Amino acid sequence: MSGTPLAHGLGGQKDLPISLELAMSGAVAALVVSFTVLVVAWRRPRYDGGDHPGRPAPALLDRVTASPTFAIALRVLGMAFALFTAFTAIAGKESLTNPFFGIFFVWWWVGLVFASAILGPVWRAISPVRTINELLARIAGSDPETGLVRYPAWLGYWPAALGLYAFVWFELVYKYPTELGSVRLWCALYVGVMLVGGSIFGNRFYELADPFEVFSSLIAKLSPWARADAAPATGVSLTKDPTIDDVPASPGALLVRSPLANLATVEPRPGLVAVVAILFGSTGFDSFRESTWWVKYYQGASMTKFTLDNLALPLFCLTAGVLFTVACALTRSSSGTPRSELPRRYAHSILPIVLGYFVAHYLTLFLDMGTLTLARISDPLGKGWDLFGTAAVEPSYWFSYNPSVLATVKVLAVVIGHVVAAVAAHDRALTLLPERDQITGQLPLLVVMVGFTAGGLYLLFSA
Length: 463
Prior knowledge:
Blueprint: H1 20-41, E1 55-56, H2 59-66, H3 68-91, H4 99-119, H5 122-126, H6 128-140, H7 158-172, H8 180-201, H9 203-209, H10 211-220, E2 225-227, E3 254-256, H11 259-263, H12 272-288, H13 292-300, H14 305-329, H15 342-346, H16 351-376, H17 398-401, H18 403-432, H19 443-462
Antiparallel strand pairs: 1-3, 2-3
Helix pairs in contact: 1-18, 1-19, 4-10, 4-16, 6-8, 7-10, 7-12, 8-9, 9-10, 12-14, 12-16, 12-19, 14-19, 16-18, 18-19
Protein name: Fenitrothion hydrolase
Keywords: Membrane, Transmembrane, Transmembrane helix
Transmembrane segments: 20-42, 70-91, 103-126, 154-173, 185-206, 311-330, 350-367, 405-423, 443-461
């Protein structure tokens, strides 16, 4: 969406008082020091295997969130908002002031990530395609959970990876992402594919193939919320750290627990590495495509920008995926896990990095354009209405007037994301690596994470 108000968050290197060299040096130092501390002080797995139940949430919160009424209310809310969004898309003006663009690019893509990190798997709870599929199944007298055939295990997250790539390609590469007809067509194709897939494979399809539900559910693993019936992620028998004081909870109870414990329950299914590589690589490309070097390069190149972007986006995603895969596969596993499966076992550790870069890259977009969208939904047809009483709401652009704070937030988000990733990878390595390799075996992944840190900050500051 280059050249539009929706392009991405405010602030490049020219806006930030922190030098690139200082930011990169501090971030790399923080990661290396963190790894050193982990090697010395973290000798046994504390979270891996899903055997860290956490503590029961407040009883009232548990009762409310577990009640069928609450679930139905969320479904109704999600469906009502989906119908409103469809109304703005069909009847709204062919203009960037149409709230449909903000709903699609800002609230749905960026806001969903932030909401999931705080509240849990939001899209699963409000998904309108799940609701429509369930209504159609009830009318037909079938079970929406099972569908017609069983979802193939080998397919895993691959459909979700393709869906996520389709979205980032549409947002970052496609020539006309801000034409109303183009966005309507993308949404129509998404709904069509989801309804067909749900009717064939049941709700299992949404868990593994809906790009937005998969993204939301994976990021939700970094939230402090979980249910007591969460299954182990790896199936590896682990020795529990006796220093952790866990409180047993009844099956299905709402728990408050460490995001690292939640993160360890990500199931290493086929396609998981592709999902995280696309999320990480596309965020890096979003910064790169607006860097001074890239703008000058495509202006003087013989190929069109569209062609160059079509080459660069998959290159970023493939580079992220290949570097991570090679680093994970460079050592053997004491548990007998084939080298080819090791990247999937470690892939959950990239999710904190993805979230960190989303915060660094899209925070100002969400706050500023998200606020404008809140104002515009009160007047979806541009007729001077104030349906929800928000028409007068205006963004403060606070970060634009406080670049030092913005720079600090960006760097901290990246650094914290990488440090949490290092902790998650280290905890998993203690269960997978032979005892004699538990330090040297992590070095390839540490080198790659250092490269991701430095490269990510460079791209972020170059935009």
